[in-house]
């Protein structure tokens, strides 16, 4: 009887046949071996092996588990025979990372872990990550080879605490078909809030007095709790003072932004009850209302460029240049976030962990994950009987050589529209503010503050000013406590 | 003359006791390490500023003072929890009792009905929560679709400030099967001769229920009441999964707030003090229930 490994089970669960998983893994392994012989390593020293020891050393890595990762890890183990990897799931990582934090506090953390960047400074300041400046310097890994924003996010008091892996910004999408139907130019999306207010009613579709297609809903997508941030930034808002000690989310740009969202829903969304009822219908569903053609414009993220391609009836376009308020006209606005690898401050397997981190940011990883990912995409395409060739637009890496590889290997073969959208996304990374810098030392409280203010204002429990005042008070209290603890330590 | 038998070192009773304690030792050590230890630690942590990742600092009563004087969420989350307890517990006991009465009939296929009503209580709570998110969906969810068929526009349920708590209570009531089974067992323990005697005395159906069933069932109902109150004060999972405490913190129950302070905001000392306040509140309520029990709970053994 053939034994089915956990990796295979994971892949089968994801809807991929065992045969195709084996085929893709074999392909990845073959490619990786060939690549190790003829392709220069990504970052300096990535893939270099220490003197071989008798027994491979096992390192624990907590990641957000997906089939592509399992496949990539197999490649890592084959090209690094002195290291084996035990993968674990990171768990909740938006409102803090309780699993990682408690494990590190107990001295039982993983050797390497994935971490979200918006909470990064909060945890770096509490010594939850090992500083990596010494390793970076030793291996001549140049910070200049990474996107600047993520490196800034991961730097606390002049020291780098992690290697950024992926990045992503907010992204504004529109439905070209709906634009044409409404007599709007499908090649040009809204550039300002005034444009949105002008276009939204033209794109709304009514059945009697009921809206069945929304031109624009500010609280799209369902469940995304930090939408307030991008609207405030579009209106010139900053989340905190330059020294990171004063929270600013109850200042005029924030209040005006929240007022604008509430008014948009009241004026063009049929009011909160109707709009929420509509939006709740999509909560927890794999398909969102924009993909289904029930919303014409939406403020979402660049990672949807590839995902929306799976909907053959959806003719969409988008930009990373977010529409701004009249007060902020002409400004290039966006925020960027993503994932990062860190080393547990207590681990003794620093070298092995670091070796993995250098590999995972390199083009070797992009190739390994991309090969499995493309195979999965082909399976998905076939399963859904989608027309044409699979459109594969994997998450962009932060390390420039790996990014270049991704551009050459995957983005260059995208259809023209998606290729253009990816270029616009990459452009938006150059002017985006990193979420780590936005969130500062009270990130978890700030994200809760966004959610509370957003829901309180939209449900009319409080006015935007009252809601933001309340959230500001909570965040400021947490911020004061964080600085006080830091300075008294 | 036979040599005197050496006196055994332990008597039989002592040996028996020693064996007993030896068998109890593993459990006792586990209880000390994993129950008593954390309980004592949490009590001490309640007087400390402890962020999990930094050394704890003694702050005396500061956490308790802040809770009562400078934390609006403490009162709000306790208010949300009290609402849940006050609405859920009576409905829970009544529904469990009514279901048990219904399923105590000698009807064909009654075992199947009993199983059907019991099944929801063994559905994993997260799976049940996901299912109810769909049932409560305002546009096309089962409840609102049914209401729409009779001309009623249902509420937003989980997205509504007013209806979010009733929605979670409704879901919790769906799992009343476990209590129903306990009541059913209680009902089947009521001696038949009491009903016969009441019938001979001319008691009608309602009088038999009022004067025989309820008194005989009262210890069971009391048991369910006490457990339900304790469990309701600790409501967490459904709110965590279905609403995350929203909208606008209308389902931020006490335990959810405690979890947030401990594991999201890393304020473990503060969370420990919250846990002790809840413990004292639930203990006090339980003692009051026991005190009041003598007025309505009938124990046959005490009467004889």
Largest sheet of chain B: 2 strands, antiparallel
Poorly predicted parts of chain B:
none
Helical run tally of chain A:
20
Mean pLDDT score of chain A: 87
What is the alpha-carbon Rg of chain A in Å?
A: 23 Å
Bulk shape of chain B: flat
First-last Cα distance of chain A: 59 Å
Question: Strand fraction band of chain A?
Answer: 5-15%
Radius of gyration of chain B: 26 Å
Distance between the termini of chain B: 59 Å
- Topology as H/E string of chain B? HEEHHHHHHHHHHHHH
CATH A-level architecture of chain B: Orthogonal Bundle
**How do the strands of the widest beta sheet of chain B line up side by side?**
1-2
Low-confidence stretches of chain A: 1-19, 28-52
Strand portion of chain B, in percent? under 5%
User: Looking at the chains present, what oligomeric state does this protein adopt?
Assistant: heterodimer
Number of helices of chain B: 14
């Amino acid at each position: 009887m053939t034994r089915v490994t956990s990796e295979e089970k994971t892949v089968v669960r994801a809807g991929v046949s065992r045969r195709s998983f084996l085929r893709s893994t074999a392909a990845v392994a073959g490619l990786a071996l060939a690549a190790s012989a003829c392709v220069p390593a990504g970052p300096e020293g990535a893939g270099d092996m220490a003197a071989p020891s008798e027994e491979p050393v096992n390192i624990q890595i907590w990641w957000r588990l997906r089939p592509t990762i399992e496949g990539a890890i197999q490649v890592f183990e084959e090209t690094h025979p002195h290291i084996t990897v035990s993968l674990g799931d990171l768990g909740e990582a938006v409102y803090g990372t309780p699993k990682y934090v408690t494990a590190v506090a107990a001295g039982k953390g993983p050797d390497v872990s994935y971490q979200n960047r918006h909470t990064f400074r909060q945890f770096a300041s509490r010594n939850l990550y090992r500083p990596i400046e010494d390793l970076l310097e030793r291996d001549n890994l140049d910070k200049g080879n990474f996107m600047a924003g993520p490196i800034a996010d991961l730097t606390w008091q002049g020291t780098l605490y992690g290697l950024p892996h992926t990045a992503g910004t907010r992204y504004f999408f529109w439905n070209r078909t709906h634009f044409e139907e409404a007599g709007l130019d499908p090649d040009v999306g809204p550039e300002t809030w005034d444009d949105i207010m002008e276009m939204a009613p033209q794109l709304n579709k009514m059945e009697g007095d009921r809206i069945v297609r929304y031109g624009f809903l500010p609280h799209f997508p369902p469940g995304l709790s930090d939408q307030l941030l991008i609207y405030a930034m579009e209106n010139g808002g900053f989340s905190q003072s330059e020294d990171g000690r004063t929270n600013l989310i109850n200042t005029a740009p924030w209040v005006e932004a929240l007022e604008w969202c509430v008014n948009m829903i009241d004026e063009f969304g049929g009011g909160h009850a109707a709009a929420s009822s509509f939006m709740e219908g999509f909560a927890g569903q794999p398909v969102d209302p924009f993909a289904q053609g029930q919303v014409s414009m939406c403020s979402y993220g660049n990672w949807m460029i590839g995902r929306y391609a799976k909907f053959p009836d959806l003719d969409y376009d988008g930009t990373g240049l977010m529409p701004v308020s009249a007060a902020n006209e002409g400004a290039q606005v966006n925020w960027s976030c993503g994932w990062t690898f860190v080393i547990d401050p207590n681990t003794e397997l620093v070298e092995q962990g670091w070796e993995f981190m250098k590999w995972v940011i390199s083009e070797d990883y992009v190739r390994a994950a991309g090969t499995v990912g493309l195979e999965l995409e082909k399976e998905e395409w076939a399963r859904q009987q989608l027309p044409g060739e699979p459109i594969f637009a994997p998450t962009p890496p932060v390390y420039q050589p790996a990014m270049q590889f991704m551009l050459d290997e995957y983005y260059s073969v995208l259809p023209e529209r998606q290729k253009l959208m990816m270029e616009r996304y990459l452009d938006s990374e150059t002017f985006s503010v990193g979420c780590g810098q936005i969130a500062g030392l009270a990130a978890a409280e700030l994200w809760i503050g966004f959610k509370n203010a957003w829901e309180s204002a939209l449900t009319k429990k409080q006015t935007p000013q009252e809601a933001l005042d309340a959230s500001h008070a909570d965040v400021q209290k947490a911020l004061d406590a964080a600085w006080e603890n830091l300075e008294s330590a | 003359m036979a040599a005197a038998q050496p006196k055994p070192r332990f008597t039989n009773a002592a040996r028996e006791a020693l064996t007993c304690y030896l068998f109890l030792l593993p459990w006792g050590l586990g209880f000390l390490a994993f129950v008593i230890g954390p309980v004592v630690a949490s009590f001490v942590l309640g007087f400390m500023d402890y962020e999990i990742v930094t050394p704890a600092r003694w702050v005396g009563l500061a956490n308790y003072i802040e809770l009562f004087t400078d934390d609006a969420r403490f009162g709000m989350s306790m208010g949300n929890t009290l609402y849940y307890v006050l609405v859920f517990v009576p409905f829970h006991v009544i529904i469990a009792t009514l279901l048990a009465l219904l399923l105590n009939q000698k009807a064909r296929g009654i075992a199947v009905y009993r199983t059907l009503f019991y099944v929801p209580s063994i559905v994993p709570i997260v799976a049940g929560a996901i299912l109810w998110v769909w049932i409560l969906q305002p546009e096309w969810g089962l409840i609102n679709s049914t209401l729409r068929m009779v001309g009623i526009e249902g509420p937003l349920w989980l997205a509504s400030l007013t209806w979010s708590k009733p929605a979670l209570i409704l879901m919790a009531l769906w799992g009343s099967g476990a209590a129903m089974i306990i009541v059913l067992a209680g009902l089947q323990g009521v001696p038949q001769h009491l009903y016969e005697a009441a019938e001979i005395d001319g008691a009608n159906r309602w009088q038999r229920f009022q004067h025989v069933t309820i008194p005989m069932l009262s210890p069971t109902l009391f048991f369910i009441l006490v457990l339900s109150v304790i469990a309701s004060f600790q409501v967490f999972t459904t709110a965590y999964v279905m609403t995350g405490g929203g909208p606008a913190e209308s389902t931020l129950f006490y335990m959810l707030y405690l979890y947030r302070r401990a594991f999201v905001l890393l304020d473990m000392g503060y969370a420990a003090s919250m846990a002790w306040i809840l413990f004292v509140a639930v203990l006090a309520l339980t003692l009051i229930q026991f005190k009041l029990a003598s007025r309505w709970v009938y124990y046959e053994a005490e009467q004889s």
